Amino acid sequence: MPIGNARPSVRPVHAGRTDGATAASFRRPGAGPRRRASRGVRSERLAPYYLVAPAVLIIVVLRLYPLLLGVNFSFTGDGERNGTAVGLDNYREIFGDPLFQTALGNVGLLVLLLPVAVAIPGLLATFIYLKVPGHRLYRSVYFFPAVLSPVIVGAIFNLLLAFDGPLNALLVSAGVGPVDWLGDPDITMLVVVGVHIWATFGMSLVVFLTGFATLDAALLDAARVDGASLAQTIRHVIVPGLTRTIQFVFVTTMIGMLTSMFGLLFVMTSGGPEGSTYLPEYYVWIQQGQMNRPALASAASTVLFVIMLVVGLLQIKLLRRAGRED
């Protein structure tokens, strides 16, 4: 019972509470949703890294780590010096080997023939995209050699290009005379590269056709309305529109020519005549498989990797510069 005019004291509801309720009641409005939104944004930023992590792990374990082991192995010895560090002795030996010098010279030939190997499927894909008569049949026919084994392709062309084979018989009937396609050191490498291009351009053709699917058809229609010729359309519309596709085909074709011709070389020439068809890939196999010199083979393999890396980067740089100029 209050005495006189005294009024009962009123305490705040949260006075003296230490269980966190007071702090919760005075928390800024919207702090919780903002924190959850921040966590959501952070998760979205990290999501791509989570997705590519398994692929990166596979590449590191199955590609980069063995590559580093091979490079390290190239600085060790063979035979009596097995496992002993020899510095650059293996590299000095391979660069002084005439067969490896021939292999490097053939790499230069491949680089010179690379534009031809890319232009053939590019032009054929252009004709198919423009729907020349029979384009569906051509697509199947052009791709068919890509499914054949290099051993089968080599055996077929061994029969066709033999000195007494059907191609020379046709030349003799035309009064030209026979050509030793697989026995003349001056032309044999060109013949093998030509067979490789025939056998593999079907895959590049498919890549080009995929690139055409991203090309703006309105540009082709505008070029046709303006009266542009086929050559002008290819140069000013198709090539700029397929720059990235062309870069990809250039790099993959060069890698294929440096690392996927072993089957043809083994079946058609076995590195001959006179070692004229050696490539670094074939040289690596000879040193490892026949000479039992794995450290020397590792050195040659490292040189091949460096060549592919340098040539690929130069190709991309030149193609990007050409695309900017266009």
Give a quick summary of the entry.
The protein is an all-alpha fold and 326 residues long. The chain has helices at 21-25, 31-73, 89-95, 98-129, 135-143, 150-160, 166-173, 188-212, 217-225, 230-241, 243-259, 262-268, 280-290, 294-325. It is built from 14 helices and no strands.
Describe this structure in words.
Residues 99-315 form the ABC transmembrane type-1 domain. There is one protein chain. The protein has 326 residues and is mostly helical. It has 14 helices and no strands. Helix 2 packs across helix 14 and helix 4 runs antiparallel to helix 11 (243-259). The protein starts with 20 loop residues before the first helix and ends with a helix. The relative contact order is 0.11. The model is unreliable at 1-26 (pLDDT under 50).
Please describe the topology of this protein.
Elements: H1 21-25, H2 31-73, H3 89-95, H4 98-129, H5 135-143, H6 150-160, H7 166-173, H8 188-212, H9 217-225, H10 230-241, H11 243-259, H12 262-268, H13 280-290, H14 294-325
Helix pairs in contact: 2-14, 3-14, 4-5, 4-8, 4-11, 6-12, 8-11, 11-14, 13-14
Main location: membrane
Domain ABC transmembrane type-1: 99-315
GO biological process, one term: transmembrane transport
